[in-house]
Amino acid sequence: MLTGKQKRYLRSQAHHLNPIFQVGKGCVNENMVQQIEDALEVRELIKVSVLQNCEMDKDEVAKEISTGAKAELVQIIGNTIVLYKESKENKSIQLP
């Protein structure tokens, strides 16, 4: 689990990132979770945007993705979800 200080640090790191995944009408599926997990292994910190036509609530989407990808939910801001997962091979973010 992340501490408040670590979450603040990750939020500041995520500020300039653009969402690389969009959750839309199809909602969250296994394939998307797998792609997000792969992206987290490479980048460690990503943003996912939840589109207006998504049938699930953004909190449900965030929970499902973070659980499926075994990632930490850093923040939900507007319709954007920020996720973090420590990389096994490409560790680049040093948490305070």
TrEMBL record:
Gene3D superfamilies listed in its UniProt record: YhbY-like
Keyword Mitochondrion: no
Pfam families: CRS1_YhbY
Domain CRM: 1-96
GO MF, any single term: RNA binding
PROSITE patterns from the UniProt entry: CRM
Keywords: RNA-binding
UniProt xrefs under PANTHER family: RNA-BINDING PROTEIN YHBY (PTHR40065)
Record's protein name: RNA-binding protein
Organism, scientific name: Anaerobacillus alkalilacustris
